[in-house]
Backbone:
């Protein structure tokens, strides 16, 4: 049977095995997808072991996305721009790397009928998750994409990668007097319950507030948006299922239906 893995450390929390097993049932494909905890120095060895044991592909999560990038023989354009991969495809003795987080995010926003074309987008954060979605967001032709980060130099480094597009870098404080249609939180602040210094007025002006973090409880950012009655308030669960669907497609050439899987994960979270 074709073997797939998600590699990470930690990995026990990963929902990817459940998502891919549901996709496999839905599409009547025989495949085995498991999570694997990899020691920090053992990533390359784990990949090679999988390839030797009928491995056809893998997902990669923190902290190995950059190591995975370095291990690939070939990379997609969007992976090159992101400097990281979350999907490995093993074919003809080569390792091909791609990143599906951006498509996962964009497809989830479109699923919620959020208009990206000609919109003013504010992306909070400049870590791996932010880097991984910029190209996909730009492919939707927004009017502008502004990246705000605690460490300004990291946002500036991303903006410099897109000299032909309207991408700029600012501090959180600079957001105060600007107006955005969509605010996407790609910081990990939500994981620790920390709030971001984004003013109520900036949030109130937006139609959509999206947080890549998901969980049983809303993040401080989404709670703030709820209090301010923002129209669309969306967490990152749909992005998670969406990026998985794109990985599944790269491996199997079949695009699964994200809706029923998302419903079952949402029900689990709400239990
Ligand atoms: P990184 O560690 O690479 O980057 C973290 C980012 O968060 C940096 O920009 C950092 O700022 C910022 N940050 C962290 N804490 C704070 C804080 N207290 N205040 C302000 N800024 C803060 O993480 P990733 O980019 O890989 O992941 C970011 C989040 O996205 C994670 O929570 C992850 O779970 C989520 N994610 C969700 C996905 C999904 O499918 N839903 C997919 C991928 C990621 P600085 O540069 O100044 O340190």
Residues:
């Amino acid at each position: 049977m074709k073997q797939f893995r998600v590699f990470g450390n930690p990995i026990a929390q990963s929902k990817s095995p459940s998502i891919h097993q549901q996709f496999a049932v839905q599409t009547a494909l025989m495949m085995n997808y498991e999570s694997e905890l990899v020691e920090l120095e053992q990533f390359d060895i784990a990949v090679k072991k999988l390839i030797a044991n009928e491995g056809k592909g893998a997902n990669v999560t923190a902290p190995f996305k950059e190591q995975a990038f370095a291990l690939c023989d070939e990379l997609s354009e969007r992976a090159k721009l992101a400097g990281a991969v979350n999907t490995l495809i093993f074919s003809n003795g080569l390792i091909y790397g791609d990143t599906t987080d951006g498509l996962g995010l964009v497809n989830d926003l479109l699923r919620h009928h959020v208009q990206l074309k000609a919109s003013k987008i504010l992306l909070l954060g400049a870590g791996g998750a932010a880097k991984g979605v910029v190209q996909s967001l730009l492919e939707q032709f927004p009017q502008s994409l502004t990246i705000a980060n605690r460490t300004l130099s990291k946002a500036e480094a991303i903006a410099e990668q897109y000299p032909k597009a309207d991408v700029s870098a600012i501090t959180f404080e600079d957001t105060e007097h600007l107006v955005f249609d969509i605010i996407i939180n790609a910081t990990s602040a939500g994981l620790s319950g920390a709030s971001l210094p984004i003013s109520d007025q900036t949030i109130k002006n937006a139609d959509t507030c999206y947080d890549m973090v998901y969980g049983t409880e809303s993040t401080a950012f989404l709670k703030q948006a709820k209090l301010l009655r923002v129209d669309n308030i969306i967490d990152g669960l749909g992005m998670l299922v969406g990026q998985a669907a794109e990985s599944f497609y790269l491996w199997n050439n079949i695009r699964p239906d994200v809706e029923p899987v998302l419903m079952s994960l949402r029900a689990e979270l709400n239990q």
